[in-house]
Amino acid sequence: MIPTLEWTSEGVNFLDQTKLPLEETYVLATSYEEVATVIRDMIVRGAPAIGVSAAMGVAIGIERSKATTVEALTAEVDVICGVLAATRPTAVNLFWGIGRIRDLYNRLVAGGADLAMIKKAVVEEARLMYDEDIAACKQMGAFGAELMPQHGTVLTHCNAGALATCGYGSALGVIRAAIERGHDIDVFADETRPFLQGARLTAWELMKDNIKTTVLCDNMAASLMQKGRIQAVIVGADRIAANGDVANKIGTYGVSILAKEHGLPFYVAAPWSTIDVATLTGEEIPIEQRAAMEVTHSNGKQMTPDGVGIENPAFDVTPARYVTAIITERGILRAPYGDSIRAMAEMVQPALV
């Protein structure tokens, strides 16, 4: 599998996704501040990977703290969590990852654990979350493979593959699983402006797996759908509201409308941790605004006139009415999503790992 991130004795090692596809280089983060920079600068990206990275960031901050009392460490944990929480606000997995380590820390403190026990336990938890993410992606693939066409082409937007997770992938994991089960499908990958995650990342990792892939400019999908050259659409998500509204990379909303117009299924694949039952609708999802330079420049070269206005929201929200199904490791959700999400949340789930 593509090693998106890895806990090591030296620190957390990240595949630098800003350098792909031309360079396969790694960034070693040895402190929680460095993990925060890795997340903020999109060296690691994708909601599931961000969640586990944030958990490892909290864990490494606790493990390497010089605090000599639990009280002093608790004050540091507040700072650690705050720094990491400020990195990528749209991805709810970020807060899930931070919260899971923070909750464990609080339980350990309440139970009278000493510093050594706390440090060991939070690292073990973060590493467990890594294993759980890979298992969840494989389970999503198993559930979602049956939804993919037996023959034809699947369109995806942005990157929801191994690079967006700890391995295997969410949306691309479904495609991988379908191909493993004998489906004869290939992939159209939207380039996904302005950061080109489709052209750089989706194409790179699918080619690594010898899956036939064609990169499209973002404005080509409608024409190809009209000509019958696309049979289904599948994307990932950074946050899914309780009513089934989906926040994903900017441009996803437009693709969902096109799919609806052309009678194509539009699937979303995301781990359960991406579903935010506390956010009632997509209107409540915070949308990250990123630097203008991502739009004004390409490969370091300025592409726009000096002084022109720039809009660069990283995400848009696809209303639930455009979503055919949501694929999670717990099963497949269908409309009405408020009911199906609530029912799935109440189910007792077996451990994946």
Describe the structure concisely for a colleague.
By secondary structure, the protein is an alpha/beta fold.
SSE layout:
Blueprint: E1 5-7, E2 12-15, E3 26-29, H1 32-40, H2 47-63, H3 70-85, H4 92-110, H5 115-144, E4 151-156, H6 171-180, E5 184-190, H7 197-208, E6 213-216, H8 221-226, E7 232-235, E8 239-241, E9 246-249, H9 252-261, E10 266-269, E11 275-276, H10 293-296, E12 297-298, E13 301-302, E14 315-318, E15 325-328, E16 331-333, H11 337-345
Parallel strand pairs: 4-5, 4-7, 5-6, 7-10, 8-11, 10-15
Antiparallel strand pairs: 1-2, 2-3, 8-9, 9-14, 12-13, 15-16
Question: What fold name stands as the CATH topology of the largest domain?
Answer: Rossmann fold
Please give the number of β-strands.
Answer: 16
Name of the CATH class of the largest domain: Alpha Beta
Termini, distance in Å? 17 Å
Largest sheet: 7 strands, mixed
CATH architecture of the largest domain: 3-Layer(aba) Sandwich
Q: Which structural class best describes the helix and strand composition? A: alpha/beta
Number of domains: 2
Helix count equals 11
Overall mean confidence score, pLDDT: 96
Strand content: 15-25%
CATH superfamily of the largest domain: Translation initiation factor eif-2b, domain 2
- Give the CA-based shape: globular
Unreliable spans are: none
Helical residue percent band: 40-55%
The main sheet orders its strands as 6-5-4-7-10-15-16
